[in-house]
Amino acid sequence: MPDGLIPRPEPEIKIVNVVATVKLNQEINLRRILEKIPQAEYDPKRFPGLVFRLNRPKTAILIFGSGNMVITGAKAEEDVYKAVDKLIKTLISKRIIKDAKPNVKIENVVASGNLKGLIDLEKAAETFEFAIYEPEEFPGLIYSMRDPKVVILLFASGKIVCTGARGEKYIYTAIEKLRNELEELRLIYY
């Protein structure tokens, strides 16, 4: 490496939440879950879904009588599938459902990260086509990337939040693409 050049730092990226929907294609008796699994939370006067929490993987699953579910809190796509598997096995063992072939769809992956450089948000706002930057209202730049389709919040410190991805791989692709764009346009300083 020539003298005076600093090596390109590797960004830090951490998946903080994976949200998925699940369809069981069968109705579920929520009162029965509550009878057989007392730690479940269900108050139909306040909310039509039952909340089922798992410690491993740490997730919260909203279960609706229609058989539709929403899983939140997973830290990886793999954890979503583990949570679904654990839930289905529990519901079958408690004779709440007979058998199930769940249809799982990743809806949103959220990641936080650090590009480890300072970002010129003013210039980025002028340069990026789908960017909003109003520092009096919010200290970050909101960048709607088209491919992959995600929204990235960029902060002058190099910190970022990426949301809207339909899978983990899109997070990594988007952040790498963003970093390359920032470097090519000389909007990030290491």
Would you spell out the secondary-structure blueprint of this structure?
Layout: E1 12-23, H1 30-36, E2 50-55, E3 58-63, E4 68-74, H2 77-93, E5 103-114, E6 118-119, H3 121-127, E7 131-132, E8 141-145, E9 150-154, E10 159-165, H4 168-184, E11 188-189
Antiparallel strand pairs: 1-4, 1-5, 2-3, 3-4, 5-10, 6-11, 7-8, 8-9, 9-10
The shape is elongated
Low-confidence stretches: none
Number of strands: 11
Helix content: 25-40%
What count of helical segments does DSSP give? 4
Let me know the largest β-sheet.
9 strands, antiparallel
The arrangement of helices and strands along the chain is: EHEEEHEEHEEEEHE
The Rg value, from CA coordinates, equals 21 Å
Relative strand content: 25-35%
**Could you tell me how far the N terminus lies from the C terminus, measured between alpha carbons in angstroms?**
16 Å
Question: What is the topology, as strand order, of the major beta sheet?
Answer: 2-3-4-1-5-10-9-8-7
Class derived from helix and strand content: alpha+beta
Rounded average pLDDT: 95
List the keywords.
alpha+beta; 35% strand; 190 residues; two-stranded antiparallel sheet; 4 helices; nine-stranded antiparallel β-sheet
Commentary on this structure:
By secondary structure, the protein is α+β, with helices and mostly antiparallel strands. Helices cover about 25% and strands about 35% of the residues. The protein is built from 4 helices and 11 strands. It has helices at about 30-35, 75-95, 120-125, 170-185; strands spanning about 10-25, 50-55, 60-65, 70-75, 105-115, 120, 130, 140-145, 150-155, 160-165, 190. The protein has a 9-stranded antiparallel β-sheet, covered by helices on one side. A two-stranded antiparallel sheet has the order 6-11. The longest helix is centred in the middle third of the chain and has 17 residues, at about 75-95.
